[in-house]
Amino acid sequence: MKKTILLSLLGFLSAFTLGAQLDRSQRPEPGPAPVIQLGEFETFTMDNGMTVIVVENRQVPVISFQLTLDIDPVLEGDAKGYVDFAGQLMREGTKNRSKQEIDEAIDFIGASLSTYSTGMFASSLTRHKDVLLDIMADILLNPVFPEEELQRRITQTRTGLQATKTDASAIARNVAQTQAFGYDHPYGEIITEETLDNITVEMLREYYNTYFKPNMAYLVIVGDINAGEAKEVTMKYFSDWQPAEVPTHTYPTPEPPDHRRVAFAERRGTVQSVINVTYPVVLPPGHEDAIKVSLMNSILGGGVFSGRLMQNLREDKGYTYGARSSINNDPLVSRFTARTEVRNEVTDSTITEILYEMNRMIQEPVDDEELEIIKNFMTGQFARSLENPRTMARFALNIQRYGLPEDYYASYLENLNAVAVEEVQQMAQKYLKPNNSVIVVAGNMDEVPETLKKISDTGEVEFFDAFGQPYVPAEIKDAPDDVTVETVLNKYFNAIGGRENFKYIHDIKQIMKTSMMGMDLTITYYRKAPNLLKVETAIGDNVMSTQVFDGTKLIVHSPMGKQKFTEGEEYETMKLQSILNLEMNYKDYGIEKTLEGIENIDEKDAYRVEVISPTGEKTIEYYDMKSGFKLKTESPESFSKFSDYRPVSLEIEGEKPSFFARLFGKKTPIKNIELKFPHKIEQQAQQQTMGLEVEEIKINSGLDMSLFEIE
User: How would you classify residue 551: left for phi > 0, otherwise alpha for psi between -120 and 50, otherwise beta?
Assistant: First the structure.
């Protein structure tokens, strides 16, 4: 069965008579839409029900295979996350190959292969296609879902969730998702630490066994192959895949709210707000309005610098670096979103301007020039997309999967060019709902919510946590009357070796290891009394950055060059951090600590202590009520968790012998003390989370002063 698909664009040139006189007072009439050349793709259905789509492209000796399941989304409930894990772990080992063997085989042929909850994608040079398909079929038919790999993924995800709590953009996305789609819809579910606790390997296997069936699958093959060759290899590698009935699911279609709501989530201490204006939209692929809606949204703020949101909020008001809007297609339900990030003090004004621009699209027709600018942009964008063979695959798949007209993409530019001014306004009137939207803001609880009440139709602001659930303030219980901040700190000092023993530390070297983005990092701290500090960060044996504080100046060496500080935020932070045994003597440096009460942290009751630095910055420290150890510090920009406290031995002089003992040659005894330091530190800053392992701590090793010299 043959159908058509575009392969290239022709006709972006216009012919002009050299001697013609132009009348520049008149706007030229728009030319015809560019002509699209059509190529061919072929489809066939295997006996097991799998539909195969072949897009032949002989330009380069490369081939790709994209398998897509046409299934309904699954409501995961209190185990949200298991569906994604099922897709990810398919690649982590089969009955015939370990994860390492799969990785090595893929690397050996220079291929790529990824799996996900609704299919997989693989590509290689054409000459390696049989090796690649053999691996691909093994993964598809024989996954084992190793328990250790699931636990590793869960641990990684759990660490990422900690970063989410301080990432205003992620917080706003979570709240927008739950409030646009609802908690009883698959698109409204959010992974949390609680849902991770409920995920088992059996769930992953059950999902795979239920939904990975050939009669629900499309295999799109793109590249250096024809339909005959495709039939041969698909029969060879996928004919053993057995069909079965697959359950279907239906869900209530989310509706926009009947009034304008304001949903707020706290990002503690931030100076900016992330704003999402959102509501659900029904706009399936191939809908008769799809092209016109896309054009209308591009004028409003669909990724174009000339978009109205960008021009208003960035160019005119100077509120932000960028403002965007989007309306996507989805076979079930999509949503409209307008989003930006602005200073706290202009949060309410920004929302007012977004709503103004949405209403202006509804009430006023766009002008011809604005419309032509966006059409030209979208035409160029469409043309560029054709350079990627996977675009052809996506077009072919959409035509088959959603029953689109055979010429849907071939006539795309013609239909785009035909959209009139009045149709743009009609789309705005139909799809923009400024009065039936959820205004989501993630920002500073102390500064922003009160200013948003006037935007809500009810005059109320609804509060949510970082994962889109109704906000429940942390329960802070009163500490017993006989407990003060000093008793909390003294218990901590005693737990780690005694305040009086830390005075014997003259210098300390601490080496920590971590990994980030596939790279092994070593971070080494050098400290010397009273306030010298050097921090080295190395990748392998190469030192990538160095920070040195010599008591008066801070020098930073990094790939960006050399920087010197004698004042400012970086300087003040390093100045405090450089002080040896700062914790023991915090009052001497203008630091205030106040006991706020008792809070549960990671299933442990902990004393909550507010810390205010000399510059007014607030930090919260948590101390385990039972052990006395410090569990966590938390600031607006970051957090650190401490665990695995281990003793480090230090030899000091004991009590001196008496005069008569010394007279008879008795030596000064040596006393051995133990100081405890955390050897596991989980640290998050700027949306990056690191798990640090302390490898070595050396005390009083005689660090040379030259270490702290500034060049």
Answer: left
Q: What is the 3-state secondary structure (H, E, C) of 43-71?
A: EEECCCCCEEEEEECCCCCEEEEEEEECC
Cα 436–chain centre separation: 28
Q: Domains of the chain, with CATH numbers?
A: 2-9+38-238 (3.30.830.10), 261-387+403-464 (3.30.830.10), 485-708 (2.50.20)
What is the widest separation between alpha-carbon atoms in the chain? 119
Judged by DSSP in three states, 16 sits in: coil
Higher pLDDT: 29 or 251? It is 251
- pLDDT of 517 higher than 90: no
In the DSSP assignment, the letter for residue 146 is -
The token pair at 179 is 């409030």
Residue 45: CB atoms within 10 A of its CB come to 12
User: Backbone phi, then psi, for 652, in 5-degree steps?
Assistant: -135, 170
Give the phi and the psi of residue 192 in degrees, each rounded to 5. Answer: -130, 170
**Contact indicator for 382, 394 with CB cutoff of 8 Å:** no
Q: State the pLDDT at residue 515.
A: 83
d(CA 701, CA 508): 7
Q: Which two tokens stand for residue 611?
A: 């810390």
Tokens of 659: 């005069």
- Does residue 16 have a pLDDT over 90? no
Distance (Å, rounded) from C-alpha 51 to C-alpha 26? 53
d(CA 688, CA 516): 9
Model pLDDT, residue 568? 85
Phi-psi region of 521 (alpha: psi -120 to 50; beta: other; left: phi over 0): beta
DSSP-derived secondary structure letter, 143: B
pLDDT at site 487: 96
Confidence of residue 711 (pLDDT cuts 50, 70, 90): low
The three-class DSSP label of residue 562 is: strand
Round to whole Å and give the CA distance between 692 and 511.
10
For residue 228, pLDDT beyond 90? yes
Q: How far apart are CA 64 and CA 229, in angstroms?
A: 14
State both tokens at 711: 């060049």
The CA distance from 644 to 678, in Å, is 5
Contact 607, 623 (CB under 8 A): yes
Report residue 80 as tokens: 């949200």
- What does the pLDDT read at residue 13? 30
560 is written with which tokens?
């960006």
Q: What is the spatial distance between Cα 334 and Cα 256, in angstroms, rounded to a whole number?
A: 11
- Residue 37: the pLDDT is 53
